[in-house]
Amino acid sequence: EVQLQASGGGLVQTGGSLRLSCETSGISFNDYAIAWFRQAPGEERKVVSCTSSDGGPKYYPDSVQGRFTISGDIAKKTVYLQMNSLKSEDTAVYYCAAVKSPWCVRGDILYPYWGQGTLVTVSS
C-alpha cells in the first residue's frame, strides 16, 4: 500500500524558511516521480516542484525557482521541500504526491497517491 505523509508546515515571517517533509511507504524512488503541490484559498492546486525517478532535472515553476529546492533521502524514504525567502504569496496548503513514472509530470490529475496537506502561512 502506497502511503505519503506530509509534515513541516507552520507559521513563518516573510523572508523566512521552512522545510517540508514527505515520508513515503510502499514505493521505490527508482520507479516513482514525486512532486509537491500547493493550493491557496480560492485557487487551483499547482505544482511547485517535482523530482523524477530517472535522475533527470528537477522542475520548479518561475514562482519558486531559486527559492525552493526538492531533495530526497532514499534511506529514509523521505522527500523534502526546502523553502527559502518565503513570501506572503507562498501561503497555501502544501501536498506531496507520487506517480509511477520515470519523468516529472505536472498535472495533479496524473498523481494517484497523495499525502495529507500541511499548511504554510507566511506573515508579513
Q: What order do the SSEs take from the amino end to the carboxyl end, as H and E?
A: EEEEEEEEEE
Total strands: the figure is 10
Enumerate the spans where pLDDT stays under 50 for 5 or more consecutive residues. Answer: none
Main sheet attributes: strand count, strand direction, barrel closure: 6 strands, mixed
The proportion of strand residues reads: over 45%
Number of helices: 0
Can you give the helix content as a percent range?
under 10%
What is Rg?
Answer: 13 Å
* Main structural class: mainly beta
From the N-terminal CA to the C-terminal CA, the straight-line distance is 41 Å
Average residue pLDDT: 95
Describe it for me?
This protein is mainly β. Helix content is 0%, strand content 48%. It is built from no helices and 10 strands. Strands 2, 4, 5, 8, 9 and 10 form a 6-stranded mixed sheet that branches. A 4-stranded antiparallel sheet has the order 1-3-7-6, with no helix packed on it. The protein is globular and about 40 Å long. The mean pLDDT is 95.
Looking at this protein, list some descriptive labels.
mainly beta, four-stranded antiparallel beta sheet, 124 residues, six-stranded mixed beta sheet
Quick rundown:
The chain has 124 residues and is mainly beta.
How are the SSEs placed, and which strands pair?
Layout (H helix, E strand, L loop, with lengths): L2 E5 L2 E4 L4 E8 L6 E8 L6 E6 L16 E6 L4 E6 L8 E9 L12 E2 L3 E6 L1
Parallel strand pairs: 2-10
Antiparallel strand pairs: 1-3, 3-7, 4-5, 4-8, 6-7, 8-9, 8-10
